[in-house]
Each structure stands twice: as structure tokens, then as C-alpha cells.
## 1
Amino acid sequence: MNHSDFLVQAAIYLASAIILVPIFKKLGLGSVLGYLIAGILIGPFALKLIADPEHVLHFAEFGVVLMLFLIGLELESQKVWELRKLLFGLGGMQVTVTIALVTVIAHLLHFSWPEALIIGMGVAMSSTAIGLTALIEKKQLHTQGGQAAFATLLFQDLSVIPLFMVLAFIAPHKTASGFDLWAVTQSIAVIAAIVLASKTVLRPIMRMVAQTGMREVFVAFSLLLVIGVSLAMASVGLSMALGTFLAGVLLADSEYRYELRLDIEPVKGLLLGLFFISVGMTVDLALVASQPMLIFGFALLIVATKLGILMGLGQMFKYPLRDKLLFGAAISQIGEFAFVIFGVALTQDSISRETYNILNAIVAVSMLVTPILLLLYDRFLNLQCGERPQDAIPENNSVIIAGFGRFGQIVGRVLIAKGITPTLIDNDPNQVDLTRQFGWRCYYGDASRLDVLEEAGIAEAKLLVIAVNDVEATLEMAKLVKERWPQVKIVVRARSRTDAFDLRELDLQPIRETFYSSLEAAKQSLIIIGETATAAGRIIKQFEKHDMEQLEATLKIRHDRKALSSQMEQGRQDLKTLLEMESNSPDT
């Protein structure tokens, strides 16, 4: 391919995405379906503008790798450890049950047992790119259903080596054992090397690169890091996405994770879009047109079967209906790894060329179904998440208020009354529009993002008031500002005692949202039932002091349920004694 051909192809990809994706997004069908349809139209089976989708598909798969790296950056190792029951329990059951059920059904449809098993293994895989992109786009990744889908997709990546061993074992002309101890040893060694490097040499190198002050060099290093980990994992037959996810998790507490996220995000978005276009180009329209009932029928049957399995597992794990539906809709398609499984099976003569072509068409059509399922999910459950561009923030003030709901508004009104103009940011577009109607200059944006804070002038600010509703965003924002701008003072609210624990671990003094209003309600209740105002005031003061001491005392043992229960019981007894002493003291 000469340079001219490359530029022409690049123009075709970009133009098709720019034209179709906004249309599908506007119609509420999601960007993924727009990319897939764009691929179908420009591919070798429609307008024939692009002749070789396979070549582009291998390159664009790197977008999935980047996405898993970015997700890993959002998760500290403790959070990943908390997902272990979902990862091995839910994920393991999904893969095992799907392979078993689909294998039996395929054999009943007159496929041989080896062919049926290959089909079962391919069908058990779901699309990481489609599932996670849709969940992130709809801001559903951190829901129960989103976490279930995420853990299941991770387990599918973990199952890569066992599935390849099975493929080698059932090959009709195998020349070696399906179990390769040396390959397993190499895999463990590579993972250990990644862990060790992240803890020892990687951060000093990142510090040296960052000290150059050249943004493009840091971007280049970020991409080199991801590519290097990917190559290391691929060299021992492991999933590249799984390896980069691990690298992301290990860097989740790094002081440079925000720069990594900002640098990689645009590249990831472009490559993921290219990946979806490439998948669309693999849809053989001639084959679909010649056997539409077979292709669409089996694609819909497989999606329905997987949806039933996923919702059944969701029921076993006692998820509410919304989360079961989200879990099922997000990953009921067949994933991109099925192309790999079927390709390997074809090269080792485990399946015929005709079967391979039909299976690939079914995989692609099943991917087209997912955006429609998620659209139906949004329509029926009224969970559509409209998006609009974040506002530019032209002003830099000494105080920034992140979150301008009922809590943030009170702080803002007091400051403005004293002649202090704060910068107001909220991530709810409806709230922003409402406050603007009453004369507030409020900006729409996510203040937990590094770029939004920088645009708001956090580096020169004296105070950040964190009053957002999202607990995770609150903690993320507090960590970011403490790490990057330690000179900025933080006033933060906590919605619960648990949130207060997390914020206290950052050396902050959180204001519990309902604590002081509840104390006032308790004081009025005491007066109504007969206590004097003075006595009630003293009781409330003692309770407040005791509760603050209890908060500090339980901070270090909050994850030890037995010790925490004992501490709380002792605290109740101490409080009872304290208030009895207070009741016996004379009023002043």
C-alpha cells in the first residue's frame, strides 16, 4: 500500500464515522451501532471502498487493549480483590455453563462433538469492546449489573490459555500434548515480571519522563508502556487486554495515573471506533443475503440463550431486575475472541471453511443486536443517559465548588454574600440549566477529571468545596487534589459514616451531610419530651464529642467486622454512662 492509498483509506474511515455515528447517537441507538453500520457500508461486501478488513481489524484491536488499561487505572488492587467472587464465581459459571449448553445444542444439530465444543467455546466469549464501551457510555459500569459484566469479561480473558489448550487437544492432526507446562511457566513469569517492574523501575522512569516537561514525550511513553506489556503477554499466548488491565491496576495509585488517562483516552476512542468499523466490514452481506434465516435465526437464538443464562446467573446472585437485564444485554453477544477461536480451528482442520464463514457471520450479526438490546433496556427502564459537551470555564477564582445542589448552594450563597465569587461546577445538565435560570453562573462538567479542574484554575485556587452526589467521584477528586495540589484546602461532605471513613484516611475532616441537622432534631426532641434547653444542649454536645471519638477509634478496624461490632457495643455502653452522668449534673 502506498502513502496515497493509506491517506485515502484514513479519509474513508473518518468520513464514515463522522457522518453515521452522530446520526445513530442522535437517534438514541448508540455510537457502537453507528460504527458497525459504517463498517458494513464501506466494506468489501457493500460499497467496496475498503478491500482488506482483516488487516485493519488486527491493528484496531489495540483499542480494546487501551480501554482495559484505562479501566485498570480506575481500580486499585483492593477493589479488584473485592471482585474476586464475581470474577471466579459468576465469570467461571458463565463460561462453563455456556460452553456446556451450546455444545450439547450444537451436537443435537448434527455437528460432531469436537465441532460442537469449538462452537460452544466461541459462543461463550462476549465482546469486551462492545460491552464495556456501552456501559461506560451510559455511565452504568459501576452499577451491580455493570460490575457483573466487567468481572465476567475479565474471567473470559483469563480463560484464553485453557481454551487454546482444548483446541490443541481436539485438533485432528495434533502433534503434541494439549498441556504445555513450559508455556504455563512462561505465562506466570511474565505476569510476575510485570508486577515487579511496576513496583520497582517503572515509576522512577515515569518520573524522569515527566520531568522533561514535554507532553508529547509522556504521550509516547504511555503508548510504549501499553504496547510493551501487550507484546510481553502476547509472546506467551496470554490476552493482551488482560495484561494491560493488570498494568493499569498496578499503576492505579501512581501519581501519574491522571496524565496516563488523559493521554491515552483520545487514542483509545479512535482505535475503538476503528475496531467497530472493522467488525462491520467483516459481515459477508452475500452470505447473509443467501441464507438470511440461518444467519439471523442462529444469531438471535444464541443471543437469547446467552441472555437467559446471564439473567439466570444474575438471579442466583440475587441482583435486582434492572441489573440482571443490564448484565444480560451488555454481554449477550458473541465476542471478538470467537473470531480467533474459529480461525485457529480452521487452520488445524477442526472445522470446515463453510462452517467457519457461517460462524463468523453469526458472530458479527450478534454484535449488531447488542446496541438494540441496550436501547430497549433504556426505553423500558427509563435509564437513558443524555450527554452534552462540557462547558468551557473561562474564570479562575480562589474558591471552586464542585457540585451545586442543595448542599453546594448553601455554601455558595454564604460565600457570595461575603463578596467571594466561587467557580461553580456541576455534572448534572438539568441542575446547571435550572440554577442558570435563577442567575447563577454554573458550568456543566465533571470536576473529578484532571482537565476540568485545571481549566477551572485549581493550581491557583485556595479552596475546593466538594459537594457532589457521587461517592466515588468525591473520593477520586479528593485523592487527585491531595496528590497534585497539596496547598489547596479541601472542604468535603460525606453522605454516610462509611464515606467519612474513606475521607478520613486521606487526612480530611469530612462534614457528614445529615449529622448536624440530625443533632438539631435530637435536641428539639429532648426539649419537647421535658429536658431544659440547657440540659439538651449539653447532652447533644457530649454526644457529638463522643461520636467524633468513636469515628476515629473505629477508623483502623472498620474492615474487621468482629472487632467493629465489639467496639460499637462498647461505645453504646460508654455513651449510656456518659449521658446518665450528664443527666445527673445540675443545670447552669
Note: The radius of gyration is 28 Å.
## 2
Amino acid sequence: MFKKILIANRGEIACRVIKTARKMGIATVAVYSDADRDALHVQMADEAVHIGPPPANQSYIVIDRILEAIRQTGAEAVHPGYGFLSERAEFAEALAKEGVAFIGPPPGAIEAMGDKITSKKLAAEAGVSTVPGYMGLIDDAEHAVKIATEIGYPVMIKASAGGGGKGMRIAWNDAEAREGFELSKSEAANSFGDDRIFIEKFVTQPRHIEIQVLGDKHGNCIYLGERECSIQRRNQKVIEEAPSPFLDEATRKAMGEQSVALAKAVDYCSVGTVEFIVDGDRNFYFLEMNTRLQVEHPVTELITGVDLVEQMIRVANDEKLAMSQDDVKLDGWAIESRLYAEDPFRNFLPSIGRLTRYRPPQEVERQVRNDTGVYEGGEISMYYDPMIAKLCSWGPTRDAAIETMRGALDRFEVAGIGHNLPFLSAVMDHPRFVSGNITTAFIAEEYPEGFEGAALAPADAVKMSAVAAACHLVRQRRGAQVSGAMEGREYEPGTDWVVRMGDEAREVTVADAGDWLFDVTIGGAVLKVDLSGWRPGDALIDAVVDGAPMPIKARRITDGFAMDWRGASRKVFVRTPRVAELAALMPEKLPPDTSKMLLCPMPGLVVSIAVEEGDEVQEGQALCTVEAMKMENVLRAERKGVVSKLNAAPGDSLAVDEIIMEFE
């Protein structure tokens, strides 16, 4: 077995590989850029080597820098993680020349499957069902329009070397085909150094289901079930689960056997994933094969009990698989929620900055797992993808796994940046997700205007009000214990309060039931609130209401709390009846008028400005392009107007809400 391996990656996947290597008794080497000098993967590894400036194209994807780190440390093998160099055949070849093992498939398989055009041809030859499309390279935007018209709209425009949702666009007409081609080509060149583009038919009402394969160097290859990855936004997966709630055993077997046939056709070894689009009749079509470890691999590990990273290392060490297809058993259900540094209340735009609070839920063997590469006080950088963590849950049934995920998300504390925890919680409670009736259009269909927070059922609003009132009384009593008060003038908090949430006010009576227990009367009903798991100052109110857990994330505001639970964010004010009466008379403070300004919606770099001062713009017209976290975002005019002033220029680095341009 290898004595030392180098991880040519960063973030959570580097930390994930280090954990398995440590379990196997293998020493690890981390590599890091200037931006990652204090990163968690650097702290966890036995050794760490600096490889360059923050941009990935000057550090993590520079093969010579990785090779130099290998020479410095004497590493015998390299695990590439995902992204970066993981699917670059020339990297595997360069390692072979150095006499260093690549913990992944052979270069030929990477080259064949990493190119989407070649892979589709090979899949068809191997008897795998494929999507109709144009397998040649697209010359320019007009050629793209011609091909799209021949295939028939809608079409998917894709980067041949793409992945992770980058370099992908759906086009429904000629104009979108032209624009999509240019944007995909630009993103592909920036992210992969390869701007080749191809086009295929976009299957409507599709599910994204993938098969995990595992092969060794001795001709053995098996599949380890499927993963449902249909909850996506901008072609990037957000929630994954295994198995799929849609597949039957016959379809699972057919997809698995075709995936193994494709893997064997290219002499595949190591772990890999064959991705399919599945329509409503369970017809499935090959999309691509990812010749690496997938981001969502933990859900497969949780239902099979197989450590995929360990298997990759053993296969790279020329070991035979210790299991056959008959040994693979799917046990229970697993769900993964990807926690991103993206603000759902700003249309999921990237957010960067320091994690002023980062408290994941407690991990429980097999039931709750959190793969992460960050820590409290660390920074989310603008140079890499916005993933913070992958929270996973397991249960004997799908409903049980969902309920475990709900509780884990409720207890996950993050502050300092925008993040998608509220959205993930909202999805877990969404009736359509709970039913399993999902497609890749789920987010677009269910949140067409973006995410504005989850609705709060009336009964839950009453429970949240009860918790707020009980917590407020605790704080009031603590404040009354100040020393030095005049005798006979001590403050004694009352029991009657008015709780206001939005436009609704509730009269509340709070009675102490002893030992952090309270009887809260609202509307004639008495709710029993247990606060034994909370102390003033805790950001998580781990309350129990009428015997049911209700963990609420809260921060103090004047006269109350800002509370978050199950994707719903509410300001809850707790006041005495007289103060509530006076507060109702106060005028509402309106936000400043920014309707005549284009604000930068996230921290990013201005790539281009498409208009000039004095130009008249139409609704929907492209105004500028801002790049953030490797994605180019086109900002468009919300209404007709005339540009009066440009406040930014290409190359400018802007903060969130900084003014880009103004209108008359």
C-alpha cells in the first residue's frame, strides 16, 4: 500500500480524502494557493506545499506546480478529487512519466469519456441509449443556430470539456442559441481552457439520475445503485438522494448494466459515474460519464457501506475488487444537501466573506454526516466554487431520511455570508419534493420568482411566538437581577405580553412551570415550552414545544428576535401591552429608492459593459456581465430607460450593492 499520497485539490473534497487516507494509515500532502494558506485541508494534512497565487489557472490546475510538490514530498500517488485536474488525461500521463500512481482511471478512459462528443459516440457503440444531438464541433453562433433549428428547440448548449454546470445553456429560440453559444464558449475557455461546444436535444420533464460504477485493473466492474440528482439550479445539483424514488428494479438493472458495459468498453478502472436523463416513462438517455469521484458520492456510501475513496486507493494500488455485483445491497435511504455561499434572497448569487459563525449539527454515525472544508473564522474566497459543506442524512426509509435532514438543517448555524440553508429547509418541507414527484425543472417551476422564504403555517407561527415569548421573559428576568438596585424599586417582569409577527399581533401569557419549563397561553390554548436546551446568548434556541423539537436559529433585535426555522425567517417582537400599543403608532421606515440604479448583486469582477451613457435601453436588454466564483452573470434592464451615468468599467472589482450605472 502507498505510504504517502498527495491530494491535488482543496476544500471539502481534500478533507474527505485525508480522512480515509488517515484511516488507512497513509500520510497525506496538501497543496494550497495564497488564498488557502489557512484552509482546513492544509491544517489536516501531514504536509502542505504552496503552489501559487489564488486563481486556479495559476495554482491548482498548473500541472508543473503539482509535479514539483510531488518531488518535494516524495508522494507515491495523487488523488485529484473532483474538478481542477481530475479529468485531465495529460495530468495522469505526466504522473505516469514521474512514476507516480494516479488515483483514478487510465488516461485513455479519461480522454474518451471526458470529451462529451467522443463519449456519446462510444456510448452508442456500446449499446447505451443516447440523446439526439449534433456530435460535431460548432464553429460559431450562426452555426449553432442552424444546428439547433435542425435538432428542434429546446436544445442544450454544452462545453465539450465541461462539468459542474459551467458552460451550459438551454436555448428555446434563435436569439437564445446565439447568446448561449457565446456565453458557454467564454465560460468553457475560462474554466477548462477548452472552448469546444456541442448541442443536443433538451428532454422536457427530465429527471437526472446517475449510476455509480467501480472497476479494477483486472477486468472486474460493478455498479453500486443510482443517485437522483434532479433538484438543480442553473444545471448545478443542490440536493441528491440515493436511491431514486422514481426507478423500479428493472430500470435500475438496465441502467446499471449499460453503465458497466460502457465502462468496460474503455477499460475503465477506479470509481466513475454514468449520468442519464430519464423521462416520465422511464426511458433513459446517456448524458456523460464523469471519470472521477462525484461531489455527491456520500449518499452512495451511506446506502451501500462502501468507502469509495478507499476503493479508489486500493484499485490504484493494483488490488482486485473485494466484492461482486451480488454483494451490492442497497440499505435504506440517504439525502445530501449542498450548503452553498449563495444568497437565495438575491436570486442565489454568490456571497463571499468571513464565516463569523459556523456550527454544523452534531454528526451521528451513519445518520448525520457533514463533509466540509471550512471552519468558523475562515473565509469564503471569490476564486473558487461557493460550496461550504455537504450535509448528509440516512434513514431506513425516504421519509425518515427527510425528517433527519430537516432536524440537521435546523441545527446548522452559519453567519457572516449569504447562504442557502433557508432554501434547503424549504425544499425538505415542499410537498412535491416529499412526494418524490420531481424533475430538473423543480426549482424553476416551484420558485419562478426566486426564493423569498418559506411560508409559515398558522400553527407553527403560534409555536414560534410562544418560544419567543418564553425566551424574552428569561432575558427580562436575567436583566432584572442587576446588582445595586434601590430597595423596593426592583424590576419584576410581568406575565402578559404582546407578540407581533408581521401584521399579526397575539396576546400572550407566560407562566413559569419550573426548571426552564413554561406554560404559554395564546388564544386560549396552553403550549408547553421547554427551554432546557437553551441559555441566553445561544444563537440556537433548541426548544421543545408540546413535546416536539423546534430548534430555532435566532439573533437579538430591539424588543425581540429575528428567528429562522424550516426556511421561514421572521422578526418576532415581544412587548408589554402598553409598548405594543405605542409601537403600532410608529411610522414605517421605508428603504431608499434604488429603482433608477443598477446595483451589483454580488461581489464580483466586471467583465464587460454593454451600454454607454446616453443609450436608451429596453426591458430585458443586457447591460453588463459580472463574473463571480467562475460563473459569468449577465445583468439586464428591468424596464425601459436611458443610461445617465456609468459608475464602473470592465476590470473593476465591485462589492455587493455597489452602483454600476444610473438611469434618468
Note: The first strand starts at residue 4 and ends at 7.
## 3
Amino acid sequence: MYAVHNSQDLKYRTPFGAVKAASRVTLSIEADFCEEVILNVTLFNQEKRSLQMTLQQQVQGIGLYTLEIFLEELGLVNYYFTLKNHGETLYYGNNEEGLGGVGKVYTESPKPYQITVYKDFKAPSWYKEGIIYQIFVDRFFNGNENGVVNNPKKNSFIYGDWYDEPMYVRTKEGRIAKWDFFGGNLEGVIKKLPYIKSLGVNVIYLNPIFEASSNHKYDIADYKTIDPMFGDEEKFKELCHKAKDLDIRIILDGVFSHTGSDSIYFNRYGNYASLGAYESKESSYYKWYRFSEYPHKYECWWGIDNHPNVEELEESYVDFIIKDEDSVISKWMKAGASGWRLDVADELPDEFIAMIKSRMKEVNEDSVLIGEVWEDASNKVSYEYRRRYVFGEELDSATNYPFRDMIIEFLLGNISSDIFKKRFMSLKENYPEESFYGAMNLLGTHDTERILTKLGQEERGVRLLKLATAIQMCLPGVPLIYYGDEAGLIGGKDPENRKAYPWGRENQDILNWYKKISSYRRSLEVLKKGDITFLELNENLLCFIRRYNKELLAVFINREERETDFNINLQKGKYEELITKEEFNVTEELCTMRLTPLQVKILKLIKTHS
């Protein structure tokens, strides 16, 4: 049976993509003439509706069936079609990959389409239009003139050479015996602000900086104290002040699903003067934790016993983190932070995230809340709960790991440019516009292998890295540079991906490329705000056009190691190729283009021809 619905074509669904609450959406499907076409809708609360569609027109036996629906409640709306004719019942639903666009006919169990219904919200412009630099503080730079490491911790290991390979000192049982440190600190970040600015960056995201035993600080000991190895509260304020002078904002890492076992709150080892939850049920912190057999058995993050999970909705914990006048959220924002990145957002209740968002906006309406989510954040399910991240009451932005995956897979030849387009357009369809343009578009973080390691470390890998960063800087979303990637750092999984920044040993070719490609993103409004249209050429060419007002930019990526010629429809006019600065005229809409092996071309329209 012939049938077609394309959720990304206004002929079949209007408006495009996610919609604000109390919106009307028109859905249409073309099919061989049917006696009955039913739209099956499932609301976010799992209420189901079956709605009769109307035959609008019929041409040569093909009918166009249409229905307008009113979507009032926040959440995901799923839908598919039932087609009935002469006693036969078929279904039309999403494609097998669930990526939206053109679907398929099913005989049973159709995969549904998705409409995201959200409450209107605005992510800060400084964030959406910016470039982020992520810093793992211990590994970035020691700003002390004499190179002395601040306040070394007991039973710790300090590297004698800044360029040493990081390692874990473990016991025979595999536990950490000594935490290792290079000695980076907030003073080092301050001293390198001009360098960071030279990358076109206007946002610094710091991995956790609060007091903790480890080098990574995800085992928080004291939420209200900067780790003494990094500095103190005054040094943090100085960083925020000097960064602001350079038009750079600071975002902090909020680790609120668990604390450290060696902390003021849990105090398993008696290192703090406070009465910890591990020490007594009379502790004011006892209700924060989930003990199954007091005190030795308690719920931990991924079973790691130095990461005891907290009861996020316990009233005293909510007050401490969010609601108190001097809450953790409030204190550090008043000290200068412009936003938070929520570690393991999947572990945090939706109510908790919503309260953080509300408190942040009270302190600073122009702040940003980002969640660590590894999948499509619009339809994420964690612990059997359908999450509400992007419905307007929680996250402004989510970490875009799907973006990283699709770039790596395309450049390594594992997926075609068409699959890349479908995956990217699926995010565009599913996310509210603010979430889409605010997505944290990363190529690597402290939790992944270095991007150069993934793409290969020889000359070909460097060329692929340049293609990857061109894609990153030219697609909608907020590009993130993980410290050292721009200097050619390599490294596999933790701890190899957390090497110290190679000051004085940077790969200048890569560094110069980063500065060039980021300058386009920083200076061109079309790359910050423009819409996107993908062009279909062949599986090895990724081509798209960005448009904003009268600005037009065309981007062409050739992943093949051979020269490629192709014909392309371009608007008539005079163009500049940004990388080579070559100018040329397009006098006919169909023109011939040539890409050399592993080349990117970025064409900017500088004058139109009538």
C-alpha cells in the first residue's frame, strides 16, 4: 500500500518540530484511497485518543487526509496512523530508526512520531551565541610564580614533571591508594584568560572546584568551600571579575546526586569536625542518605562507595542546595558564576532540577542551566521515568553527545552524510528552538577519549580533526572546546584523557586552525542564529547552507581521500571562500564545485546578483 507522512515537511505537519503549549498542529498523510484513516495520539500522561481524519482531496486514487489537533499540556505527544480499507488494517508510523521525517507502513506495532510540547522560555543570548572552553582545573595551569603546588593533600601523589602521563595509584583490590595531582589552580586560569579569549571563547565551564579528596572533585567534601589546592572564595571572585572584563562568563559543575564519603556531610573517616551521617543517626545530615544496613551499607553512585547517593528531595537538602538565602546555588552565583552544569542529570529528580532553575532565575535571570545527558534529551527515560528536561521548566541546554557521535561516525566512514543529516534533523525536530540552538555541541570531554585519538593521530587524523571542528563551529548549537584539544593533546579513556595542558609544546598547526575556525563562529551572526538546510549530493560529502536575514553561508565537507567534483545549486552572487580568502562569482544557479581530499570549503555570500 502507498502511504507517506513526513514530519519534517510542512505539507504533512505544520508547524515544524516542537511547539509551545496551547498550539494547534495540523497533521496530514497521503495514502491510497481508504475507507477510514485514524490518527492515534498518546499524550505525555499516557492518555490515548483515536481521531477520525478528513479526506481533503483525492488525485488519481491518492487521498490527502488531514486533521488539526490542539496541544495544551506540556510533554511529549506520540502519534501514528491507522489505515483501513476493504477489511485490511495497516499502520503508518515513524521510520525504524525513530528519527522523524519520512516513515513507513507497518502491519503491526508501528513506531510512533514525536511532538514536543513546551512552555516558552529563553536561554541567555550570551550562552547560545558563544563558544565554551572546558577546564579540568588541576590539569590546566599552575599560576604560582614559583610553581609551588597549593596545599597538597595528605597521602597524595604530586607529579614531578608537568608533562608526565597521568595514572591512578591503586591498591591490589583496585581502590585508589593515593590521588594524583599536577597542581593546576584558579590563579592559573586567571593568568591564561587572554589565551582563552584568543580562541574566541566567551564561556568557561569548570569541572568541580569545591573541596574534595580527588583530583576530579566529583566526590564533594564541602560545597561552600573552594578546594584549597585551587584557591579560595576570593580567588574565585577574582577569576569571575577578570573574566567578565574580557566578556567571559564562568559556569560551575554542580554535583548534587551524591557527595563524597570523606565529606562534612557523611564523614566516614572522621576527617571533619562535623557529626556526619555515617557517624550517627543523630547527624543533621542523616536524612540526606539512603542506608540499607547502617552505617556500612548505603546506596552509592554506580556502586562506588566513596560516592554515597543523596535523597535529593529531602527538605533539609533542598534548603541547603537551593532554597536557603545562602544556598549553594545562590552563594556561588552571587560570587560571580553565571550558570551551572548539572552532573548526571539523569540521577536528579525533575522536581529538583526545576527548583534549581527557579532559584537560579531569581538570583540572575540571565543565567544558564545545562544538564549532562548522553542521549536525545527530549525523550530520555531514566529509571523508568520519562524526563521533562526540555519542556521549559528545567534545562536551558543539554550536553550534545549524539552530536559528537555522528561527527566521528561520519568522518570515520561508518555512516553516510544522509544518516548524519537524519540524526541531526531529528534533534532539530525534537528540541524546542532554544534548546536546539543552546545545545552544548562537544567533540570531547573529561568522560570521553580525546577527539584526536578517536580520529587518528597521524596526518590524516589531524586533517579529520580540522573537518570535525569545521562541522562543530558551523552547525547550530554552542561549540565546546575541551582544554588541550586545540593543542593536539591525545589520550584514551580516563585518566589518559585528563593530561596536563602541554604549555610550550602545542601543535601550532592545530592551534592556529582552532583560532581560525572559531573566529568564524564568533564573528558571523549566521553561524549563531541561522537556519540550516542540508544538500544531498553523495554519501561522502556533507553539505549544508546556513541563512540568517540576508547572510548566507555554504559549507562543504569532503571526507574522502580523493578529489571530488559535483554540481550544486547556489544563489547567484559573489562569494568569498573564508579559509583561502578566494573570491569568485556564481552567475548560474547550477555551478560546479571541486573539493580536494579531506577538504572543507566555507563560502560566504558577499554580494547578490539579480
Note: The CA atoms of residues 7 and 314 lie 42 Å apart.
## 4
Amino acid sequence: MENNIEMMQENETVELHSDEAKTDRSAKKRKKAKIQPQEIVRIFALGGMDEDGKNMLCIEIDGDIYIVEAGIKFPDAKSALGIECIVQDFSYLIAHKDRIKAILITHGHDDVMGALPYLLRQIKADVYATSFTAEQISKMLKARKIKGIKIRTVKRKETRKIGGRTVHFFPVTHSFPQAYGLGIRTEYGYIVYSGEFIEDYDDMEEAYRGDYSELSFFRNEGVLCLLSDSKGAEHQGHTSPGHRIYDLFNKTLDDYQHQRVFVEIFTQSVFRIQEIIESCIEHRRKMCFYTRDLQDLIAGLEGITDAVPPELVISNDQIDKTDNCVVIISGQGRSLFNLMINIANNEVSDISFKKDDVIVVATPLVPGVEKDFRTMENDIYKREGILIKIDKNVSGMHPAKEDLKMMIFILQPKYYIPFKGEYRMLCANAMIAREMGIPYEDILVLDNGQVATFENGVLVNTQEVIELHEALIDGEENWEKAGVVLKDRETLSTDGVVIMAIGLDSKNQKVVNGPDVQTRGFIYMKDADYITRDITKIMIDTIEENVKEKKYENLECRAEIRDKVQKYLLKSTGKRPMVLPVILEINSNQ
């Protein structure tokens, strides 16, 4: 009896194990037969690679496009030609505007969001930014009279569904308050963009405090690709505390206790502006926020950062009445330096510049404004003012080598793309990734327009290149037309102009005088008489041919002459001057 019971139990056990085994085998078969998700990811930049500014990153997942940043670039002094700024070629985005899910703006600097008005005139898409940056964007669009754009506020530490995909935001420390980095989920791991960040664990206000423990979220989920800021990659160690000007400015206030101190600084260097304010508060020095933009910025920071004691704030008309005040003068680019030149030359109504006044330069020497910066220096020295260049001892708030290593170490990405910076900076960033153990073949140094394509989590191609042409902006409302005008200016400055004039009888289109050829900035025509002969012959032959074939029209004929002469000059001289044919039709009866 007992033996039978034991036998039954044993049989039951055998059957049970057998069923489990069948279940396990079935699960394995299903798992083996399971089709992996098919997904194509394309990552490319429309700006920001091998240049300073014009940052724009595009992340395309199964056709859905996420735009990260939309910045401008300032032209260098040699090629300015009246150009106010340079923006990206939006042709690809315009052609696929129905697939754009979001524009993600990480902070409020011009090289990150300055191109938004030009982009949003061409496409309509929701813009995602933190509250302070969103307010700056709203003001910018309102000033440009751009309507119908939804600006959606995000928190620095949250996960959102955007365009049907998970986007995870994390706070970083940068010179602009409420800056963030982000990751967009794919089936094969997150695509993480670091944003512009530094490691700084000193006590600071919440608006600037980074929280890199948030990166463990991505590490646990898996990181397909990491894109990191490269502008500080050539610097050893950590950026912090070398980014701070607080102690340096304190010393200036200690050294010049009884003199007025003028501080020139970019409006968007908010972290530095707050350091200057904190130093003034500690020294109980009266402050004047000189420009309207700066006054608006300080008002907008209320509730985000500590308030400025109202008893320490003076108005512009009190500057000449207050012996040891600190006058903070903000602006952007060459307009800021031109304002400082005017102040030094006593060309503003509310400041009488004195030779014992101190001017503190708290801005970096950014590309495109070198000439204006030197002119400002010269004019201040001529006025016998005291000039202190505080920025030469300070690092920009971009990640240095150890900051970048920290990001790579925590995230352990499968692929790595250096983003944002001149080519040597991209290469320095790539070498840091190699030092961290990422294989060469998984580190991608891309050009603007070069597409990195991933299929099912594996890099398959970097050969596709989107053809790009920069748009030059001179402040005109019709910016596309302005770009053409600026290209003409560039042609004039490099290859010159050829003007060809001829007079025709208005009745029979026979030549009555000319052609007369004049050139400026092209070649010395007395040493090239054959060119004059050849292009006048082209002009006459083209007119006579059009008249003979009874298809002569003034505008069409001029266009044909221009095309033929330009081709001839390029072949003969290697130059592409602007060619301006003029055909005057004269009434012979007059």
C-alpha cells in the first residue's frame, strides 16, 4: 500500500516535471521564433560640426524627426559683408515637415535657439523648453511676429511622451539657468544628448544644479548612442572650478573700492552675471543694470534665483552721481563692444567717462568680433581708463576631459558621436572616448549633413550626405532674398564686377554705340585687352543672333549674355565676377 502511494507520487512528480520541460521547450521555441523589432535610426547634424555655433541635431527614428537645438552662428570679421548671422539650410526639414515631432531646446543661448524664428517661419512644430528658456523664446517669437507656435514647458527632471516616444530629461550645470540634457528611447536603447554641461558639486542655486545620478536611468535601460559637447574637450581635468569669476571680481572690487567699475558681459552669460551681482551684494556696492535687455533678464529671474536687494540698485541717471557704483553693461556680439566704445568716447548721454574708471571685460573673445574687441581695447586705453580682462583666466562652461569621461563611464554607450565644436575639438572628444574603451569603429566623427544610419541597433552606413547651403542673414525681413544679396556682396568682395553697356536703336535693334566695358576688383584690363575684345564680341553676337531669329527681348537677352560671359571669364581667368549687362534702347527720332 505504502509502496503504491510512493509509486503514484513518483509518477505524478515525473509527469509534472515532464510538463514543465514541455513548457520550457515551447517558450524557447517561441523566443527563438520571435521576430526582433525592425527599427531604422538616422542621426545627423545640420550645423554645429566643425564650426562654432549654428548647432542643430536631428534624430530620426522610423521616419519621426526630433530636432535638438536650433542655433545661429556669427560671421567672422573678414567675411561679414553686412551679415548679421548665419543659419542652417532647412531644406531637408521643410521637405519632411510633416514628420517633425518636436523641437527640443536645451537652454537659451543664441547658438542653441537663435535660429528658431527663421525655422518656424518655414515649418510649424511644437517647441519644448524649461520655463525660463520658454519665456525667452516667447519674447523672441513675439518680437518677430511669429504666431501659432506651441511652446511646451518641461521640467529638468522628468519623463514625457513626445510624438509617441519616451523622452527623458535630466538637469545639467551650465551658464544658463534650467539647462538640461535628454535621451530619446528606441527599441535598442536610448539616444542620449549630454547638452552643454560641467561637473560642479559646490553649493549653488537649484536652477544651475546638475543631477548626474539621473544618468543611471539610461545605464539601466541601455544606451545605443551618446552625443557629447566637444567645445571643452581639449582641456585637461575638470572645468570646475576654473569657470568661476567670483573670486577674481571680488579682488577687483577690493582693489578699486572708491572707483566706478564698468562690467561688459554677454546678456546670455547668466551664471556670470549672477556671480557679479553676488560679489556686489557682499561688498555692498551699488549696482546699475544699464541695458534694457539686462533689466528684463533680472526681472525674469525673480522666483528662479535669489532676489537682488532693491536698495543696492540705481538707475542710469544716477551713474554719474555715484562714485563707486558697479555698472553692468550687457549685450551680444559686436553691438556690445560698439556700446563700450561709445561709452569710452563719451558718446552716450548718461555716462561721463573718467580716466580713473575701471572697465572689466567679462566676455570671451568669440569668433567674428575680434576686430570690434580690439577697437574697444584701443579706445579705452586712449581715454586712460583702467582695463581688466578677467575672462582670460576663466574657462567656458563646457565639459573638459574628465567631465566627458564621467559621462561616458556612467552611460557606457554602444556608439559615441562627438557633437558641437571645431574639428580639432571633435577629434579630441573622440580620443577621450577611445581612452574610455570605445572601439574606433564605434566612434563617429561626422560632418554637417553626414548621416549615421542604424538598423536594429547596429551601425550600417555613414556614406549618405545631405547637401547643405548656409543661409546668410542681414536683418532683412525677407531673409531668403537677403541671403541672395549677401552672396552678391561676397562675389563682389572676392571676384569683382564686370559692367557691359551697349546702345541699340529701339526700332531695328542695331548697335548705335558701345559696347563699353568697365571692371572693378576683377583684373587689370589693360594687361588683358583680349578679354575685353572677346566679351564685347559675345555681347554683340548674342544680340544680333536674337534679332536675326526674331526672339529678341531685352531681359532675356541680357540674361543670355550674362551666362555666356560668366562661363567665358571662369574658363579664361578662374574667377566668377558679377556680370551686369546693360542694353539701352534709344529712340533714333529724338
Note: The longest helix spans residues 2-33.
